[in-house]
Amino acid sequence: MQENPTITAAEIARLAGVGRAAVSNWRKRHPDFPAPVGGTVASPEFDLVEVEQWLRVQGKLPELATADRLWRHLAAVSGSPTAGLAAVGARLLDRHRGVPTGPVDAQLAPLLPDLDALADEWGPQGAFDQLWHRFGAPGPGRSLATPDDLADLMVGLADVAGGVVLDPTAGSGALLRAAVRAGCTHAYGQELDPDLAAVAGLWLALRDVPGEVVAGDSLRADAFAGRAVDAVVCHPPFGATNWGDDELGHDPRWIVGTTPRTEPELAWVQHTLAHLRVGGHAVLLMPPTVASRRAGKRIRGELLRRGHLRAVVALPAGAAAPHAVPLHLWVLRRAAPDAPPPPRVLLVDAAAGGSVGTAAAGGSVGTAAGGGLAGTAARVRAVWRAFAAGDAEVDRDGFARAVPVIELLDEDVDLTPARRQPTIGRGATAEHLVRTRARLTDAVARLSALMPQVTAAASGAPAPETLSVAELVRTGALHLIGPVRAAPGAAPGGPGGAGPGDGDVTPARVLTGRDVVAGTDPSGYDDGTLSERVELLVGDVVVPVAAPQIVPRVVSTPGALLGGQLYLLRPHPGALDPWFLAGQLRSSGNDRQSASLSGTRIDVRRAQIRRLSLDEQRGHGQAYQRLVAWEATLAEVGVLGAELARLTGDGLADGALLPEGQPD
């Protein structure tokens, strides 16, 4: 272990809120800039303490949030970010339970004042969440956790609410956290990495969730052997070559046959089945090749014949790592031995919609519908619920089909959804093309009309005077609210109810961070986990805390509640125009100024806003509003253009369309 943490030039740039070129210039122009203490010539590393002292003397060090400062030091001095988080998590758990804290490692002792301050501010649960969010950001030595959107979809398909859940490859606990958000009663997990197991278990313990996470190899040394649960969720390792097939040749968990050595993912399928009660559901994230590899043909066939496999969902590329691959979800249901197998299996091709992306920054709440995985997940859940309820009309051209099992039990037993979807009829292709072409023509016309009309400022004009958001709050021009915290004992992430509940009164809608980024209507419901209820007003500007860049949204429809992990900026109508404020917030300079060292969290108080008269602000606000509309239309043109190209190519290929002028 090193006594002082180190920092790279890129991290210095994020720390100071500048570009890397500025750091390079400092090194050249300031002889007293700290010398490298490690790394390479191309990528030097510097002593963090020395750099902070130099930046502070030069007046270049923005004020850091306690959590950012603590995490930066913790990740460096502990050697392993996971081990460091587990160590401070254990101390926070002692504080949560009101028991004396044990001795702390000498390397962590200097961090205790910041840890105590963070726990005083957020409570032990909230403090651990603050650190975990920074731990979960992509980076060297950090596990690739299942993204929250995907985890929520998986636990929704598994129907975990009110039941006991198991994750045999728990990692840092992303799926178990999603299960708790969805209302499971007990959560159990097993994880090969002891530090990750400790982190996942600490999160459960800090929320007093019954259950445990055990360190160990689930396949070779099943910690929950013989235990049947209501639901299993699993994101197994892909392509493992040493998973224990030699030792497990006659394992009782192989309920549909011995798993071939080259099919480790099917070993996890059988492991999850073995832990389900009859009627319980399991959902696994799988590489797409498992659906068609020849070595797994026999196992796939038996899963179909015995009624255990109920659905395969092809996700858009980018839903989880590896991001270039459109992964699959397998939905299993433990069938009773004497029950007749269901006649059909649901195959969903959600990958056909393209890759998971992020909506363009800017926009207003209550307008456009769904992007990224959020919109796809809603369609997947809807078609699965209809299929599970026995609805015979679940087929959706090009998206979902209830396929007869007998059709799947062919020579290959290929479960790839795209290969089992019916093609759109020839007449429907032509009609669809005409409609798409009309929509594209209309969007292109709107694009031209919305083109931003701006002129260059006079040369030699003085640099604009700015004020930080924090200064605007102090002057009364702006009211800053949030981020709203979860109520004590509640799961993090704000309200996440998938529906309005079973009571007679519909709970209030809640705007979530995902809604803001995707540009969708409020999708959450008030399930009692908010520590305070803040109703959104027209003209409010909301900004997610957990994001790589500032994504401001101007509220256009009142009535929803502010969700967790969101800043609410409420401008004084006589001092600030909301659209001007949103346009200023989303600038590249403010992205650098406001981002945390990890680049995954935003402190909007650091953002700089130009000082302009209210009339000038309104002119800028109108220009920004047009820019947002232009961006949305530009994205629509891209989607419609790609759809038109696909329809035209398919129609020409199958004879549904002919080149213009060619006789029938």
Automatic annotation (TrEMBL):
Keyword Acetylation tagged: no
GO molecular function, a single term: N-methyltransferase activity
Domain DNA methylase adenine-specific: 146-352
Gene3D superfamilies given in the database record: Vaccinia Virus protein VP39
Keywords attached to this entry: Methyltransferase, Transferase
SUPFAM superfamilies documented for this protein: S-adenosyl-L-methionine-dependent methyltransferases
GO biological-process terms attached to the record: methylation
Listed PANTHER family: TYPE I RESTRICTION ENZYME HINDI METHYLASE SUBUNIT, TYPE I RESTRICTION ENZYME HINDVIIP M PROTEIN-RELATED
Name of the protein in question: N-6 DNA Methylase
